[in-house]
Amino acid sequence: MLTRSRQLWILYGAALAGTTAAATLMMLFYAQVDAEMGPIQKIFYVHLPFAINAFLACLLAFVGGIGYIWQRRMIWDDLSSAAAKVAALMCTVVLITGMIWGRYAWGKWWDWSPRLTFSLLLWLLYVVYLVLRPSIESRQRRAMVCAVYAVAAFLDVPLVYLSTKLMPKDIHPAPITLATVDMKLTLAMWFVPVTLLMGGLVVALMRSSRLARRRADAANADSAWSLSEGEPIRQ
Length: 235
Fold this sequence. Notes:
Layout lengths: L3 H27 L13 H28 L2 H32 L8 H19 L6 H15 L2 H11 L14 H48 L7
Helix pairs in contact: 1-7, 2-3, 2-5, 2-7, 3-4, 3-5, 3-7, 4-5, 4-6
């Protein structure tokens, strides 16, 4: 018989799959084609929700970092680590969809404009976080270093947002106005599965980190017991 936890995850998976399918159908067949940009405008319905949720994941990593610095509890490190991984994933999707949009809208895949440069920097910051984390062996030292890093990395988020306002000459298009109800509903619908994905991944990765830590603690306890009893430790 399924446990309550498994039932909730099955329900979550069904909700994610259902809303993703509905959002995709709305994007393809319900939302009208933009008169100026044409069909490529529809990638905006994916691009913007992933961008907003990338910022939310960065914020969660920041909160987790602050929490660990303040309380030294590993649950905050779990949150920061999980959110940083999700932020890197979300930023990857943002960059890919933005490059596809740029190829058709501007005729080139990339331009070193302020917003694009700060967006690439944001992605690189969280990729470096993922590389840095396993390189530190001590659990407490790793948590502290990564907490400080997550707090510092979040400073790029407002720079991404403010880049076009502080530096108006930018190839990145101005905010798109959704003139019709079908466009607005399609965008709103896309926020549902993307937000579910972001939240679900953060929770799942937090659970995974907690279970891995418990297994490591149990293994260390067994090793200590074996040494105290004078038994050889099995590799």
